[in-house]
Amino acid sequence: MSCENNYVNTVVKAADAKMGKEILVLDVRELTTLTSYFVIVTGGAPSNIQAICDNIEEKMRDEGARLWNKEGYNTAEWVLLGYDDVIVHIFQSEPREFYKLEHIWKDAPAVDVDDLLVK
Fold this sequence. Notes:
Beta Polymerase, domain 2, alpha+beta
């Protein structure tokens, strides 16, 4: 079932379209005032991570979303995109395993977005 937040849905579809893997959406509304959702994605090589990032930015711009912050694009080990109510984390496999955001935010319920993913 897609998320009630259209920006989250846009991010998930854009990441999936560029071969993003292990896409996880966490609803952090009850845990922080920083944002409403985290979208966590694993990419491959730096060029793949940058392609995922570029596609998300393009699709979000088309939706009228404003990008407030972008970090890590050049090294592409962990790219962070900050929008109003969605923060996107795009990782290489090793940094994702090392930082384990899923564990840090384990009290946040996961949002089922399987219907947005191409099978």
